[in-house]
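Our example copied in:
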Amino acid sequence: MSRLACPTPLRLVGLPPVIAPGTRLVVLGSFPGVASLQAQQYYAHPRNQFWPIVGTLLGIDLVALPYPARLAAIRARGLGLWDVYAACVREGSLDSAIEAAEPNDLGSLRRRAPGLAAIAHNGGESARHMRVTSALGLPVYRLPSTSPANASWSLERKLAAWREAFQSAGLGR
């Protein structure tokens, strides 16, 4: 009787940071989901509320823009994106399935963005790294996840929480 070996999950590599010298607020996710990795785009899952929330706060319809224009629009307004993990092993998209995670160099945020005024963690897994980001001496926010898995928070409630972080960094309306 032959035994079939379970395939070893592949090591996944995340997306590069979207950070410019004029970045005032960096939103840190945990690690891109399957849809984002396939598209090579932050928050690519169609039910993720990130782009609608950020668009509302910045006063632009980011959802209607092609991805490169979205990135240009947020960069121009002082918003940056990155994840706390550079690489990991994971099946599916849930943060609870992340294994063997390799962290990004979050300590480099102030060097990458000299005008940085605040850091926001998008969801609980990202917020586990608040000890590292708090050491940078800036306001740090734990925000409700924009993931479709976080259905317990309404869009309005998420918007209110996100608005505080954006306003503290001088972004948004």
Q: What stands out?
A: The chain has one domain: 20-168.
